[in-house]
Design goal:
The chain has 507 residues and is α+β, with helices and mostly antiparallel strands.
Length: 507
């Protein structure tokens, strides 16, 4: 993973959580004019002024023995110091803040530990930025001790964030994943799904900001898996609640039936009639409840599916928009940059195809022999020595979308050129199956695609890839083009001498 990205992510997550444990204790205290004035200054426009105002606010709060508010302003000023690499000044300010905390006799030891946790965390951030792993780890161990003394759930949760970011920053991915899962599991166990969702959304959003396409795809994939599991848990909870309601109603009905059976003999006939009517009502109620439950489940399933698809479409559409402006500023001659530009272009194409799936593409009449020969000519200089190129078509014309069919066939033939060894054969065939159905077949005598991988080659984003060796979106794009033309693209399972792709189209 990109180490610079995790330094950036560390800063963002810290800003989200660094003051959470103070919020509850400070809501009753009005912010000073100095603090309000500092918060009104945009650090991006005048960082020195913002820093100076926060320091003044810190000193003002300290003089008035409002330590919690002073620490909040002090650590903000510290962050603005080391943002400009003024580490000496930042460390000096943190020492002053710690002295102020120790001098306050009005707050408990636990509260002091929570405030010292904030200053220690700022030191850790600086060591992370300076790439001093050992020093950062020392501060992290101190933070863990302070969190135990603070005995504050917000501090404990923030410690998990800090551990995860430390591990990710210094390349300890396995430990980072373990801590991140612990944090997510902890929140999930308390059914605080919104907070877990916010964590994943933060990872995805910051992955986009750092232009790390691999991490965006990986984070999004994990997010979808987690989202599906939580949806299943929510549905199970709702189903259990409905079952309990039905059980309670059945119990009440049974109780009423028992009381009716104990009535005197003079009302036996009325009791029998009442029981019969009650049975009819119970049966009708059960049938109605089952229908309602089934209807609700179906609506929820459809809604969840629509929400997931909408989220995927929005995600795919936004990736290219975030990546492309920054990537175009880089050197396109570098393989990594070219790979990212291609990946951005492929994502835009795939997103456009999915968003316009219901639109009918334009059709035109083409002569099949000339069309196929023209496509085959484009790969003649890409094949290995002594590879035989064969075009087998009928002298006929068909109506098709020339852009999409050309793209699909050229992609399939280019892949065949890459995987067909010397002396092999690559074929492009055209077959008319009925008056309204025809096929283009691309065959090669390469080693073939393993059976266990055939179902997945048309699915995008199934694995994290090195983009310089290909992003794996070529075949999914071809598949979407075929579907948009009301056709299909698949592998011929009966072809065993290599690989054969079949493009089915309908007039």
């Amino acid at each position: 993973m990109n180490r610079k990205f995790f330094v950036f992510l560390f800063t963002v997550l810290c800003c989200m959580t660094i003051y959470a444990q103070q919020t509850d204790n400070n809501t009753s205290v009005t912010k000073s004019d100095l603090q309000k004035e500092a918060e009104a200054v945009d650090p991006a426009q005048n960082i020195a002024k913002a820093r100076s105002l926060y320091i003044q606010a810190f000193n003002d709060y300290a003089n008035r023995e409002l330590t919690r508010q002073g620490v909040e302003c002090g650590v903000k000023a510290t962050a603005l110091y080391y943002k400009e690499n003024l580490y000496h000044e930042a460390f000096e300010l943190l020492r002053s803040i710690d002295q102020t905390i120790n001098a306050d006799r009005q707050i408990s030891n636990g509260e002091k530990a929570a405030l010292h946790y904030l200053t220690t965390k700022e030191r850790m951030q600086m060591y992370v930025k300076m790439k001093r792993s050992a020093s950062a780890l020392e501060q992290l161990n101190t933070m863990e001790s302070q969190a135990r003394q603070a005995n504050n759930e917000n501090v404990d949760n923030d410690l998990l964030y800090s551990k995860a970011i430390y591990y990710y920053t210094f390349g300890q991915t396995a430990q980072g994943d373990a801590v991140f899962r612990e944090m997510a599991d902890k929140l999930t166990a308390t059914k605080d799904y919104d907070k877990v969702d916010e964590v994943y959304q933060t990872l995805i959003a910051n992955g986009r900001k750092s232009n790390n396409a691999n991490l965006v795809a990986q984070s999004y994939s994990r997010y979808i898996i987690w989202k599906d599991s939580i949806n299943a848990l929510k549905m199970a909870d709702e189903t259990g609640a409905l079952n309990q309601q039905i059980a309670d109603r059945d119990a009440k009905i049974a109780e009423k039936d028992s009381s009716l059976s104990s009535r005197q003999a003079i009302i036996v006939s009325l009791s029998i009639l009442a029981i019969a009517l009650a049975a009819v009502l119970v049966l009708g109620g059960i049938v109605l409840m089952r229908y309602i439950v089934l209807t609700r489940k179906q609506k929820k399933t459809i809604s969840l599916a629509n929400d997931t698809n909408a989220l995927k479409a929005k995600f795919i559409s936004n990736i290219a928009a975030h990546l492309e402006p920054s990537l175009k500023k880089l050197d396109a001659n570098k393989p990594e940059v070219k790979a990212l530009l291609d990946f951005s272009s492929h994502i835009q194409t795939l997103s456009e195809l999915e968003n316009t799936a219901d639109e009918q593409p334009e059709m035109e009449e083409v002569q099949v022999p000339a069309f196929c020969e023209g496509i085959m000519d484009q790969i003649r200089d890409k094949v290995k020595p002594n590879v035989n190129l064969a075009v087998n078509t009928q002298k006929t014309s068909v109506s098709l979308n020339k852009e999409y069919v050309s793209h699909i066939l050229l992609h399939l033939l280019s892949n065949a050129a890459n995987y067909t060894p010397e002396g092999g054969t690559i074929s492009l065939d055209f077959k008319k199956r009925s008056p309204h159905t025809y096929q283009f077949l691309v065959s090669d005598t390469g080693e073939g695609i393993p059976a266990e991988k055939r179902e997945d080659i048309f699915k995008p984003f199934l694995e994290i890839r090195d983009l310089t060796t290909g992003d794996g979106l070529g075949l999914p794009i071809c598949k979407q083009m075929a579907l948009k033309m009301k056709g299909d693209l698949d592998i011929d399972p009966k072809f065993t001498k290599g690989t054969r792709f079949v493009l089915d189209l309908h007039v």
